[in-house]
Structure formats: structure tokens, C-alpha cells
Design brief:
Largest sheet: 6 strands, parallel
Low-confidence stretches: none
Shape: globular
CATH architecture of the largest domain: 3-Layer(aba) Sandwich
Number of strands: 17
Strand content: 15-25%
Structural class: alpha/beta
Length: about 550
């Protein structure tokens, strides 16, 4: 019998490793082509329990994996060859760590003896992602000796999923392979050391019981309180239960998924100029400056989040509860009971109703497209059961400003690091999870991830991407840089690129909406990737936005 070569042995080790990942519940892996990763990608592709998604660009592949993992809640692998391929995964790793998403980064590498020698496509990949990976493991070079492959897979999945009070996170496994990389003989069975599995720790209920009692007592002693729900991945029903029990107004960002009946309908307009004795902040940092000011000006702040980072310097945070939001929110609600309505809460809800009526009347009166109406109408109009992925910069803020509460919609956003990177690929990753997917993105975000669109649009995914095209970075028109003579060239960066031509090149269906009232009709679900371009006059949009704010502010000041 012919002795197995290095490729046969490496494939045998990777089959054991990948089989253990599938045993542990991993169902998807995103890979990019390369030679050094041959044993790994063959094992992934030959494992029937794992779907393999092939992507040309590692950065896009990382974000598709991110979207898949965020949508499904399960760890997803992003596998690549050595060198700068691994570096291109870094933006998705940062977002996954900041946003609590379970990713497995599987980077192929040269054997250790080739590092530092000038060997082609070889860099130092040890601990490449630094503190943005919860766990880094340098795997041994594959051999016929008993290996840690099944135990390594179990350890990686456990670390990526997190636990009570610990959010999900990315995990990096560096896998060195020696040549030859291609198997030449019969499959090799390798001995593996399964190792001990982690033992269950204390329940989340027991971990948060003392904190829940302390927070409930503060709520009971405070009338002028507000609950702010920033972006989160927890059950939003628990947030609504807590708001009802406390009897406080609920300012819920769309990406909290608590913008449902019972929450304020126009919170970002109502919070302007208001103050509270106590703010209970759940989840991530508020997106808008108005809500950030509400929190900053509060007499005191209690934050509840699975992350250990402090929300903002200078905030008067007198208690941070690091735990699962839903569990502690329900525990507090049970202790708080049902508080009666007060003049404080009534004042908020009456102002909210006036603001909502004014906003809708203005938006409905305008025939030309405006970002605020696009955001409101897409949130209203997508079918129940859909997922709406919203890009950063202006789209996420407009959704926060103009979205009305509704049931049956899940909103996802990359708010961990809030970058422009990979938004198209993230949306397509959500679509790959089986979710009925819509996305609201700006034109620069789409162009920034054009490679993701060009590669993936014609590969069997169904997603509708609404592109608000103001021919540049429209958010900069709202920032101090708008007064600079270099504003247009250095910040707005108008591009003049034909989005229809880009869509056609990618094999995506294209439509253009020139009248505001026509958007809802264009949102009818259909097969494949669809690009709906909504052209925006940037100068008019700034004026329209100011008109909404000024009209609402005057109406609220008069009462």
C-alpha cells in the first residue's frame, strides 16, 4: 500500500475537525479560493451537513459569514488561504467582536519553519486579529499522531457562542499545512483526542437576580425615568414587558427590534431638549445625538448589556449590569409589577402622538423622494416575517427618525463598529440564511462593496436592496465639514457611477423609483437580487429634513 502523502494526512485531520464542527451544530461555511487551504476547503465541501458558500473576495466572504451568523444565531466559518487573504477578513472580525456575532476564522498557513524566510504568500498570522478574537489557537501541522482536532472544534464553537453574560464573538484558528496539499491516495483516518467538554455554569437567572432586585428598586423610587433600547440581539418582547411594568416611555431604536406597539412612535423628535432623572439604557450606544444627549444629561444612568465596555466617557453611569438583556429585563419586570400611568409618561405619549401626525403629514405631501419617507415606507411596506438590513451613515439614522412601530419585522445592522464595509455582503449573507431579506443602503456603501454584489448577485440568493442615491456621502451635508471649501471633493465624494449599469453587470434586476409614492409597489418580493434605486436631490433633502424638524419643534413648543 502506498504511504499517504501530506495532503492525504491533512485531509484526514480536517475531516475529523470539520465533522466535529458539524456535530456541534455548524451548518455554513464561506470560503475563498486559494492553494494553501486545499485540505480545509475539501473537508468542508465534502461534509454533507455543511453548506459551502464560495466567494472570490475574502472581505466579502467575511461579511457574508457575518450576515449568516447574525441572522441564524449559529457560528459560521470563514475559511481562506494564507497571507493577505487572512488580513482581508479583519473588518468582519472587528464587527463580529463589537456586535456579538459568532464567527470562526479558519486561516490556512505555511508550516512554522517557512515563516520569516521570505516564502511566498507568507506573513505572521499568529494572533493576527489581536483582541478582536475571543480565542486564538495555532493548530499543529497535520500528522498521523493523535491530534486535538475534535476537541479543537468543540472548544472553538463554545468560545464563539459565548455563555451567560458573555456575547457571541469571533474565534481564530490558524491551520498550517505542509506540501503536497492535494490528496493522492485513499482516505486517511486519524486518531483524535476529544478532550473534556465545558461544564454548565450557573444559570443566567441566578447570575442576574441581585442586579434585577437593585434595578427594580431604583425604578420603583423614580417617576421621571426613560428606557432607551439601543441595538441588541436579545428578545425584544422582554424590553416591552419591562417598559410596561415600569410605566416609563420607551425610546426604541429599530435595531433593538423593540420599535413595536407600546414604544414611542417618533422618539428622536420627542427626546429633543428633554431630561430625565434616570435612564435605563439597554444594549448598544444610541445612534442619534438627541438620544445620546438625553442619556448624557440624565441624573443617573443604569446600563444593561452583555458587553463590558462603558457606553460613553462622561456619562453618569452608576451601575452597569453585564448580562443577557432579556433575562434581566424580565426579572426586573416581575419584581416591578405594573406601575400606573403618570403625568410624566402621559406628557411623553401626547407629544409623541403630535410629532408622529406632523411627520406623516409632511412626508405624505411630498411627491419627490426623500430619505426619511424612503426609510418610513420600507419599514412599513416589507411583508411580515421579513428581515430588513440597514446600512450605517444616513440610512440607520433615518430609520431611527422616521420608522413607525410595527410587528413582524426584524431589523439588523452592523452597529458594532458602524463601518461602511461589507454591507451588500452582509445583506446577502442574511439572505443565504433563508430569511426574506430587504436592505436599505446608501450609494457609497453599495459601491464600497461592489465586489460582493458582482460576485454573489447571480448565485441563487433572493434579496431586495433599496439604494438611496444622493450621489455621494449625504451625511456630511449635516456635519460641520459642510462649511469647508473642500467639502464636496474630500467628504461628499460625488461619484457619477451608473448604478443601473452596475446592477446589470452583476446580473441583478434593476428598478428606479422617481416618485415617493411608487416605492411601496416596487417592494413586492421577487426572485434573485433586485436593486431599487431612489435618486435623491441632496440640497433639497437637507431643506426637507430641516423643515420636518422645525415644524415638529414648533408644534411641541406651543403645547
Amino acid at each position: 500500500m502506498t504511504e499517504p502523502n501530506a495532503g492525504d494526512i491533512a485531509l484526514g485531520c480536517m475531516r475529523a475537525f470539520v465533522g466535529a464542527l458539524a456535530d456541534g451544530g455548524m451548518t455554513d461555511a464561506c470560503i475563498s479560493p486559494g492553494s494553501r487551504s486545499t485540505p480545509l476547503v475539501l473537508a468542508l465541501d465534502r461534509e454533507p451537513r455543511i453548506r459551502v458558500h464560495v466567494h472570490l473576495d475574502e472581505r466579502s466572504a467575511g461579511y457574508v459569514a457575518l450576515g449568516l451568523a447574525a441572522s441564524s444565531g449559529r457560528p459560521v466559518a470563514a475559511a481562506c488561504t494564507s497571507g493577505t487573504a487572512a488580513v482581508n477578513l479583519h473588518p468582519a472580525v472587528v464587527e463580529a467582536r463589537q456586535g456579538g456575532v459568532p464567527l470562526l476564522l479558519l486561516t490556512a498557513d505555511r508550516p512554522p519553519e517557512l515563516r520569516g524566510t521570505g516564502s511566498n504568500q507568507t506573513i505572521d498570522q499568529v494572533d493576527l486579529y489581536g483582541r478582536y478574537a475571543r480565542l486564538f489557537v495555532e493548530a499543529p501541522v497535520a500528522s498521523l499522531e493523535r491530534g486535538p482536532w475534535r476537541a479543537l472544534a468543540a472548544r472553538a464553537l463554545d468560545a464563539a457562542r459565548g455563555g451567560p453574560g458573555d456575547p457571541a464573538a469571533p474565534v481564530h484558528l490558524n491551520l498550517p499545512f505542509a506540501e503536497p496539499l492535494v490528496p493522492a491516495g485513499e482516505p486517511v483516518e486519524v486518531a483524535t483526542d476529544d478532550g473534556p467538554r465545558a461544564q454548565a455554569g450557573p444559570s443566567i437567572e441566578s447570575l442576574c437576580a441581585a442586579d434585577a432586585r437593585a434595578v427594580a428598586a431604583r425604578l420603583a423610587a423614580t417617576e421621571r425615568g426613560v428606557i432607551v433600547a439601543g441595538w441588541m440581539r436579545d428578545d425584544p418582547d422582554a424590553v416591552l414587558e419591562l417598559a410596561g411594568a415600569a410605566g416609563w416611555p420607551l425610546v426604541a431604536e429599530p435595531a433593538s427590534n423593540a420599535r413595536r406597539p407600546g414604544a414611542l412612535t417618533a422618539p428622536q423628535f420627542v427626546v429633543e431638549g428633554r431630561s430625565a432623572d434616570l435612564v435605563l439604557l439597554l444594549g448598544g450606544l444610541p445612534t442619534t445625538r438627541a438620544t445620546q444627549a438625553l442619556v448624557a444629561d440624565a441624573g443617573s444612568v443604569i446600563t444593561i448589556s452583555p458587553f463590558d465596555r462603558v457606553p460613553m466617557p462622561g456619562w453618569s453611569v452608576d451601575r452597569h449590569v453585564r448580562t443577557d438583556i432579556a433575562a434581566v429585563a424580565r426579572a426586573i419586570a416581575r419584581l416591578a409589577g405594573d406601575a400606573p400611568a403618570t403625568a410624566w409618561t402621559t406628557g411623553w405619549t401626547e407629544a409623541d402622538a403630535r410629532a408622529r401626525a406632523i411627520i406623516d403629514a409632511l412626508l405624505d405631501a411630498w411627491d419627490e423622494p426623500f430619505e426619511g419617507r424612503v426609510a418610513r415606507d420600507i419599514a412599513d411596506g416589507v411583508p411580515a416575517g421579513s428581515t430588513l438590513f440597514v446600512g450605517n451613515s444616513t440610512p440607520v439614522r433615518d430609520l431611527d427618525l422616521f420608522m413607525r412601530p410595527r410587528e413582524g419585522l426584524r431589523v439588523l445592522a452592523n452597529r458594532g463598529a458602524s463601518g461602511i464595509d461589507g454591507t451588500v455582503s452582509t445583506a446577502l449573507g442574511i439572505a443565504a440564511s433563508g430569511a426574506q431579506t430587504y436592505a436599505l443602503l446608501g450609494d457609497l456603501a453599495v459601491l464600497h462593496d461592489a465586489s460582493g454584489l458582482l460576485w454573489a448577485a447571480g448565485r441563487g440568493l433572493d434579496a431586495t436592496i433599496v439604494v438611496v442615491n444622493n450621489h455621494g456621502g449625504g451625511i456630511f451635508d449635516l456635519l460641520p465639514s459642510a462649511t469647508l471649501p473642500e467639502h464636496e471633493a474630500l467628504f461628499v465624494t460625488p461619484h457619477g457611477i451608473d448604478l443601473e449599469a452596475l446592477a446589470r453587470a452583476a446580473g441583478a434586476t434593476y428598478a428606479r423609483v422617481d416618485r415617493a409614492q411608487d416605492l411601496l409597489g416596487a417592494l413586492e418580493p421577487g426572485p434573485g437580487v433586485r436593486i431599487i434605486e431612489v435618486p435623491i436631490d441632496r440640497a433639497r433633502a437637507v431643506a426637507m429634513r430641516a423643515q420636518v424638524r422645525d415644524t415638529v419643534a414648533r408644534a411641541l413648543a406651543e403645547r
